[in-house]
Amino acid sequence: MGRKIHPLGFRLGVNQKHYSYWFAQKKDYPKFLEGDRKIRNFVENYIQKHVKNVSNYGGVGHIEIQRKTDLIQIDIHTGFPDLLIEEQSLGISQMKSDLGNILGLGNRNLRVTLTSVTQPYGEPKILAEHVALQLRSRIPFRRTMKKTIELVGRTNGQGIKIQIAGRLNGSEMARVEWAREGRVPLQTIKANISYCYHPAQTIHGVLGIKIWIFRDSH
């Protein structure tokens, strides 16, 4: 029977790093962990709600959180930060204010920065959000997978694998379909693998989207 392990946790300390940086006493660890989850969910929901031109928006690649003695630093890695700033009348300041109210902090204790991702479609999370948008628009899943693979392309010897599970195209029975282009060596610890799981809510139920991207380290 197959034994599955998370591709990113499998490679921590080799070619993957943590997205949260802080130290805590044992009694504070659950509180900080829950706080990080709230921050990430709030930022992603806020951006989806306030960015009108979602089809051209690069999405959020990942969010890095650093906790210091008197400061929480939130670094949002996004595909098109300029579009995010233009679409919001008040820019990042409104999101910072709302987030500070949720966490019970003043503006002086919170710093939010936007960082541009060099290749937006090389980030699995941005790709997964793009696939979810296509599936919610009732575009056939095979065409969606093919177009998504074309977005990434095969550069620097990289490969991509996409897996979608659920009631595909509204069929009665759930199944799993996948497509791969290039090499995706999941069993090799030194392989630079990026991974994301993203659920897509459709009228037929929830579809689970998994994306693996292999980048050649050389």
UniProtKB/TrEMBL annotation:
Small ribosomal subunit protein uS3 C-terminal domain boundaries: 131-213
Record keywords: Chloroplast, Plastid, Ribonucleoprotein, Ribosomal protein
Localization per record: Plastid, Chloroplast
Biological process according to GO: translation
Cellular component aspect of the GO annotation: chloroplast; cytosolic small ribosomal subunit
GO molecular function, one term: RNA binding
Top-level taxon of origin: Eukaryota
Subunit structure: Part of the 30S ribosomal subunit.
Family affiliation: Belongs to the universal ribosomal protein uS3 family.
Protein name: Small ribosomal subunit protein uS3c
Organism: Myriopteris lindheimeri (Lindheimer's lip fern)
Lineage: Eukaryota, Viridiplantae, Streptophyta, Embryophyta, Tracheophyta
Chain's gene name: rps3
